[in-house]
Amino acid sequence: MALELSDKQRRVFTWWMPGSPDRDKTGVICDGAVRSGKTWAMSLSFALWAMTCFDGAYFGLCGKTEKSLRRNLSDRLQARLRALGFTVRESKTASFFTVALGRRTNRFYTFGGRDAGAASLIQGVTLAGVLLDECALMPQEFVQQAVARVSVPGSRLWFNCNPEGENHPFKLEWIDKAEAKGLLRLTFTMADNPALTPEIRARYERMYTGAFYERFVLGRWVSTSGLVYPFFGPRNVSFCPGTPREYYISCDYGTVNPMSMGLWGRVGGVWYRLREYYHDGRKTGVQKTDEEYCDALETLAGDCPIRAVIVDPSAASFIACLRRRGRFRVIPAVNQVADGIRRTAALLQQGKLRICPNCTDILREFTLYRWDERRDETPRKRDDHAMDDMRYFVQTVAACDHAGIAVATPERKEN
User: Fold this and answer.
1) By CB distance 3.0 to 4.6 Å, which of 39, 114, 304, 346 could disulfide with 247?
2) Alpha carbon distance 372, 384 (integer Å)
């Protein structure tokens, strides 16, 4: 039976072959989501490359520890090679195995890179290639020492990892400099693994929230520290259980910057963000007029009896346009940033403010909205448009319904 491969997996298997447009690369980096099919494709391709291009050479397989390397890669790789007709003999006490086909034989050493001291374990050996699995979890001293051991003509480097923080040393030194170093970089998501069923993919997507969702599902290098709402998770996300009796719309105005609007309804003392409108003129290349935004707001409102529209107080032209139409009561929002964030955090933590799963733009911003490291109690001015329209609603409407709420500052963690 033919093995089904995604385009990225196929590229991992073929990048080093004659005729490939990537054949002149000095190595490959595969990073991205968990369960994305990158590890097995890379390990098998590494072994096939070694057995195709070399005879009597030494290679390195490196993991966070030898135990994790055996569990995640080495045992499975040996089984796959045997199934393909290779002869594999392992010497566990000496931490290597040999692979043979016909008269061609190569040796694969296994190393654990738990700490900086592990670099001494790999010193002195000359390698034709090295595969570093979970390389973002290894000290950079070990990574640099492993790379330094690869000096045979025709040798190549192979890196595999899940993302860590945006300022992680491996990202700064290898991911960001991949092109300059002559490396092929392939970023995987779960969609690049044909072996995953939609049900399994959905299960993994439900396992993570916040920055960990960004890392392990979307495959992005983002920090888990510095989030304005670090506690935000599945308990804050649910569909509205009934029909609200009162509705509001909140707006953060933008022409070049995104325009964000949210429809809010209250059921059982809880405010739900029922649906939203989000337009990024810079990303789409289409800037909309105030009249077009008024049309979009009316579509968002539908037949709901809107009590008031809460608008960014700096959006004078948009406020005037709405008032000319005469359909909605328009209120300039209370715009005290630090106090608004504290009140929003309190309502979220108390379960009085919830987001419906279909509001994907505000859910995305929850994973990206961070404090500005250079200014106390001030969030960064990006990925904040749905965050701002939510804050306007809380400060102007929702917080007034809960005058006795405990106002607690969300924990601020430094990078």
Assistant:
1) 304
2) 12
Strands 96-101 and 87-91, bridge-based pairing: antiparallel
In this structure, is the dihedral angle defined by the CA atoms of residues 14, 20, 26 and 30, taken in order, positive or negative?
Answer: negative
- Whether residue 263 contacts residue 304, with contact meaning beta carbons closer than 8 Å, is answered with yes
Asked whether 193 and 33 are in contact (CB, 8 A), the reply is no
Query: What predicted TM-score, i.e. pTM, was given to this entire model?
Result: 0.59
- Whether 27 contacts 135, CB under 8 Å: no
Contacts of 191 (CB under 8 A, 6+ apart): 6, 201
Query: Which tokens go with 335?
Result: 């715009």
With cut-offs at 50, 70 and 90, classify the pLDDT of residue 52: very high
What length is written for the chain? 415
Instruction: Give 3-27 pLDDT, tens digit per residue.
Output: 689 999 999 999 999 999 999 999 9
Q: What tokens were used for 194? A: 């044909």
Per-state percent for the chain, helix, strand, coil, to nearest 5: 35, 20, 40
H-helix segments, 54-139: 66-69, 75-83, 119-122
The whole-angstrom separation of Cα 268 and Cα 401 is: 12
